[in-house]
Amino acid sequence: MTEKTIGPKTLQEWKSLYPLLHRLMSTQEVFWANPAYGRMQENMHRLPLGMADLINAEKRWERFAPYISRVFPETEKSQGRVESPLVGIPQMKEWMEERFQRQVPGKLLLKCDGHLPVSGSVKARGGIYEVLKHAEDLALDHGMLTEADDYAILDGERFKNFFSQFSLAVGSTGNLGLSIGIIGSQLGFQVTVHMSADARQWKKDLLRSKGVHVMEYQADYSKAVQEGRKQCQKDPRCYFIDDENSQDLFLGYAVAASRLKHQLAELNIGVDGHHPLFVYLPCGVGGGPGGITFGLKLLFKDHVHCFFAEPTHSPCMLIGVMTGLHNQVSVTDFGIDNITAADGLAVGRPSGFVGKTLEKLISGVYTVGDDHLYLLLRTLADTEKIYLEPSALAGMPGPFRLFQERAGQEYLEKNSLLPEMENATHIVWATGGSMVPPAVMAEYYQKGYSKHAQNPSS
Ligand SMILES: *Cc1c(COP(=O)(O)O)cnc(C)c1O
């Protein structure tokens, strides 16, 4: 009998190289600090994108602001900016300190991307940005627009007719489809969303109500992407939004960093050698957390520490980066089923682009069980009246796990951070939830009261 191989090694070899795989494979919660984590100075030259790209992306968002504020009236008061608040969550912090039996020194803030306008999740950053960029490219190429125009003109029959000759396609577990579908159909594009089996019914219904074509698959996210890519390639007027590889999506997300920098300044929160910033980002395929990390690293360099959070049943980025196999590996190769209540994070194969770009800049990755997500969902609603979807809670235990777990302690020691922790700021990135229908939210909330969720054993 030949032994099972994954990439260049046998399963046994992988397990002896990376003993953490034992716990990962039995879907226990883990905390992994990245041994390859390095200084920004030494890694900047390896990055395919830089500050100029980030600034261009910011400017593109600004050009579109008059259009956004016109077609999405909820953005009027933010002058067409698609941005979310950064808020303190003192009651939640207190509850968690009790539960984890540990004080977290420093500040704890929640970045409320679940309340982003237009599509109610972090995907409103990358997804909308890439569609805007594509629309702009088309309109510029066809001589219909110049960068100096007031982009509010895009809201009219002339442009809608023009864009209706073109189509967009995307593979999604739900939220990316939602953001592409909403902005794409608003501009006039024909949009097809290829939905994985994880996608929630209400997201499909909402998209169909906007005239978006929704294809459903009984398979997971990777399959939905693959099919979408294949079908789109047959049509020269179809543009595929490639969540696994897209630099535009990545830049759309990265703009979050410059916005955050302003928000921190408004709160008089400094980030420097004596005031480290820790950020905890839920991770699916990696584009969202990756893009945000990239932006933060450009702006704050070694003073920011970015940890990714994944479901115990879908730790694709952790396994991809730890083994160096990146997109050559799926969690299912290690017998992990990729079935999780965190539908936004139900991804078995990570983005190779994100993993390779950031393999030395991600501080670490930890995993969270579904029962914990539900418990945290319910508690955040009870303590702070903030309602999120399960995926969006994955960041929440981050600060506690960092202090609690040996690998976290070692990370702080190794980077000489222990003396600075009193002055640290921890930002939990809440990535989705404001569009969840009340009945579905009530079900989520109720699950936080189940016996299992009360005493989650990982
Ligand atoms: C998509 C998503 C993420 C993660 O983004 P990726 O780009 O897939 O890593 C996190 N939270 C929610 C709610 C999402 O929809």
TrEMBL record:
Instruction: Tell me which InterPro entries the record gives.
Output: D_Ser_am_lyase (IPR011780), Ser/Thr_Dehydratase (IPR050147), TrpB-like_PALP (IPR001926), TrpB-like_PALP_sf (IPR036052)
What organism is the protein native to? Formimonas warabiya
UniProt-listed HAMAP family: D_Ser_dehydrat
Q: Where is the Tryptophan synthase beta chain-like PALP domain?
A: 98-399
Q: Which Gene3D superfamilies match?
A: 3.40.50.1100
> Which sequence positions carry the modification called N6-(pyridoxal phosphate)lysine?
123
Enzyme class, top EC level, equals lyase
Protein name according to UniProt: Probable D-serine dehydratase
State the reactions this protein catalyses: D-serine = pyruvate + NH4(+)
Its keywords, alphabetically, are: Lyase, Pyridoxal phosphate
